[in-house]
Design brief:
The protein contains eleven helices and 16 strands. It has 376 residues and is of the alpha/beta class. The strands form three sheets. A six-stranded mixed beta sheet has the order 9-4-1-2-3-16. Strands 12-11-10-13-15-14 form a six-stranded mixed beta sheet, sandwiched between helices. A four-stranded antiparallel beta sheet has the order 5-8-6-7. Strand 10 and strand 11 form a beta hairpin. Helix 5 packs across helix 10, helix 6 crosses helix 7 and helix 6 packs across helix 8. It is globular, with a radius of gyration of 23 Å. The two termini are 40 Å apart.
């Protein structure tokens, strides 16, 4: 039930997550103490006349977040070196520079994005390019137009999507309504990095599939964000027990829980401990083969058989803690019932926090949006 009093006394934000299975949504409220509360959740989001009127009257920002299955983001730095005699940067010079950068990103990364998204290159669209940071002669500025800098650096985010999904995205929000578009995986990296592209790894362990990771690489790399897979599922310890002891996966899960709780005889515990340690060794070997280093945040998967956070071979392995992440960014989450069959709240809160702290130049990014539509 939407609490209109809470909405009137604070700020409201509508976050939509667009995924292959459909579009879900959450209406958040943020009060003057920066406490975030969930006002409404839609498993299958649809516009209604009442909701449309509420969003319009209260000027609620709309944030559209794309599921990683339909979004591939490349973050690239670009540099414009200038002579002093060229004078101040004007709109034409900036637009030409950004247009060349966008075309280069499209030509260079389209095939890579297509491979990650599982579609043909011809069906891969550059959905969005955003300038998130300008630095003129080493100093961060909001708008480079009028600057006489000899060296202009820009950090650009380029998001690719399947053509079929791009067409669906155009009909998701009614024409004329502005919205903030992002990639959920990228939003979660920014949340973990406290608003910056800090070197770290975000590893998601699905139950039945290979693990997927997103890594922010050192900033002298060609692309800030690397996306890859690890040949391990969230059931790595269950599989090890099942294989070694010839039991079903369900029984292996029960035995693993008993092992974690030390709820077995000493003799049985020692044998299970050997099995689990072999699986832990395989886990760390895989991390090292993928060259993980620095902070590694785990999402999903089973409880680990070792204390977290854990330092190992240059890594600091931790679990994602939503309350802690929000606290780092100055928010508190009001306690509320959130059923386990719903997507994790981070799916919606990470894009919200990215939008809340977005300091990019809206005018320049509006021009970039028009340029992208022309290319598409």
């Amino acid at each position: 039930m939407i609490d209109l009093k809470t909405l009137r006394n604070g700020e409201a934000f509508l976050v939509l997550e667009a995924a292959p299975r459909g579009t879900s949504g959450i209406l958040f409220a943020v009060d003057d103490r920066r406490e975030v509360s969930v006002q409404k959740f839609w498993k299958e989001f649809k516009w209604s006349p009442l909701l449309r009127r509420l969003i319009f009257l209260m000027k609620v920002p709309i944030i559209v977040s794309l599921d990683p299955a339909v979004a591939y983001t490349v973050v690239l730095p670009a540099t414009l070196n200038r002579r002093k005699s060229e004078g101040p940067i004007d709109a034409v010079a900036l637009e030409n520079f950004l247009a060349q950068t966008i075309q280069k990103a499209l030509n260079t990364y389209r095939d890579e994005a297509a491979l990650a998204l599982g579609v043909d290159s011809l069906d891969t669209i550059l959905t969005q390019s955003r300038a998130v940071r300008f630095i003129a002669d080493g100093k961060r500025i909001e708008n480079p137009i009028g600057s006489e800098a000899k060296k202009l650096e820009v950090l650009l985010e380029h998001m690719f999507s399947p053509r079929e999904f791009f067409d669906r995205l155009n009909g998701m929000v009614e024409e004329g309504i502005d919205f903030f578009l992002t990639d959920r995986a990228k939003s979660e990296l920014l949340l973990l990095g406290q608003g910056e592209y800090a070197p770290l790894t975000h590893l998601h362990f699905p139950d039945k599939k290979e693990g997927v990771f997103w890594r922010v690489r050192p900033h002298d790399s060609d692309g800030y964000i690397e996306r890859g897979r690890v040949p391990l599922s969230g059931k790595i310890f269950y599989a090890a027990i099942s294989s070694r002891w010839g039991v079903s996966e369900n029984n292996a899960a029960l035995l693993y829980d008993r092992y974690l709780g030390n709820d077995m005889s000493g003799h049985a515990y020692r044998h299970f401990d050997q099995t689990v340690k072999v699986a832990v060794g395989a886990l760390f070997d895989t991390f090292q083969k993928k060259k993980f280093s620095g902070p590694v945040f785990l999402k999903g998967g089973p409880e680990m058989p070792f204390a977290l956070p854990q330092r190992k071979a240059g890594m600091l392995i931790s679990r994602i803690s939503l309350p802690n992440l929000l606290e780092w960014r100055g928010f508190k989450l009001r306690k509320s019932l959130w059923p386990g069959n719903r997507p994790p709240l981070t799916h919606y809160l990470a894009p919200f926090v990215e939008f809340y702290y977005d300091k990019s130049n809206r005018h320049i990014n509006h021009w970039l949006k028009r340029r992208i539509h022309w290319i598409a």
